[in-house]
Amino acid sequence: MLKFYYQKFSLYSRSVWIALLEKKLPFELIELALDGDQWQPEFLAINPFGRVPVLVDNNFSIFESSSILDYLELQYPTPCFLPKDIKTLTIVRMIKMLTLHELIPAMLTLIRVTNNKNAIEQANQQITAMLNFLETQLDDGLYIAGDQITLAEIVAGSVIIWLPDLNITLSNHPKVELWSNQLRQRPTWQETQPSPEIIQDWLKRIQKLPKIRARQWQQKPSI
Hints:
The protein is of the alpha+beta class.
């Protein structure tokens, strides 16, 4: 059976969790609090970088959410979350990478930074650019590729639903708002949706993350 190591606060973990559920794969869900567990020898043997998410498949460890999602598509291709059409596939891959490298960092900036107007303005611009791009890709179909979900939904759709918790409205992007609301209704989104209490705890944790990481780094065993 697959083993999935995750953190309930992690924006990166949730996309993998949703993919596993959507593919209806049997897996063991193992939560790490990241309060020192990640530096234990047993976990470092799985991921020497001490981070989640991690997927273990028959003693083969895959870490970094993007790599895990790619592995799942190759190893367990049914249902397939990558469209066959080359242009649509390219758009899906772009949305996936833009979420990981533009949207999530911008969101984390808004949570952590309170006194740097330039950083906040840039983060808001990144988020708006992402929403604008998604709005242009959502035509009359339910999803990016029409009537089936793709990695664009699994990655971007698992993150964008957090934006209202950052006081960022989707009302200026009606197609994105409808798309996000549709995803919220899927059983896999509902199963992985954290409670309001967890969300508030997550926001506080992200604000304190630099201090937490500094403390965690001190706990890391020397190599």
